[in-house]
Amino acid sequence: MVVDHIGIVVRSLEQGIQQWEELFGYTRNSDIVTNTRQKVRVAFLAKKDSVTVKLLESSDPSSPVSVFARKGGGLHHICFRCENLQVEIPLLKAKGARLLVPPQPGEAFRNNDIAFFFADNNLNFELIDTTEKEGWRGTV
Predict the structure, then answer these.
(1) On the CB side of 90, how many CA atoms lie within 13 Å of its CA?
(2) Number of C-beta neighbours around residue 111 at 10 A
(3) How many distinct helices (H) and strands (E) make up the chain?
(4) What's the average model confidence in pLDDT over 84-105?
């Protein structure tokens, strides 16, 4: 597995994008996508020779990130990309990771399946097996 991106919860997607562009030199590198299952709006940001960042904004009060966003947001998850989600899930569970969200289509990933886990040390992580991102504008 390799790190695909880090997920950061923000109160406002537009303000978050502006902050990451001005403060860290990142560029929005995808469309803004609404994930109807997780009830968030997301955008990917990229910077040459750096990790991709996914900003998440709650789009509904019942979103899993809504309370976190109201408290100011911040680092939400690390996303790992693997070869095969269906093979990796039981291996991670056998190693003690708890499956929070079973595989489901992720709109930000062109409806390829995503899954979320929780592990020791309060590690919330996402698992994907695709490089596709909705509206991705290519390399930086």
Answers:
(1) 2
(2) 13
(3) 3, 9
(4) 97
3-state secondary structure (DSSP) of residue 83: coil
Structure tokens that stand for 72 in this block? 């100011």
Give me the phi and psi of 106, to 5 degrees please.
Answer: -110, 115
Q: What is the pLDDT of residue 9?
A: 98
H or E stretch including 92?
helix 85-94
Considering only the top CATH level, what class is 2-128? Answer: alpha beta
How much is the pLDDT for 135?
84
Q: What residue type is assigned to position 79 of the chain?
A: C
- Residue 113's identity, in one-letter code, is D
The domain locations on the chain are: 2-128
3-state secondary structure at position 128: strand
**Which amino acid does the sequence have at 78?**
I
Q: Residue 42 belongs to what H/E stretch?
A: strand 40-46
Residue 77 has pLDDT above 70, yes or no: yes
Tell me what pLDDT residue 138 has. Answer: 74
What is the per-residue pLDDT for 140? 67
Spell out the residues 6+ positions from residue 10 whose beta carbon is closer than 8 angstroms to its own: 16, 19, 55, 56, 57, 69, 73
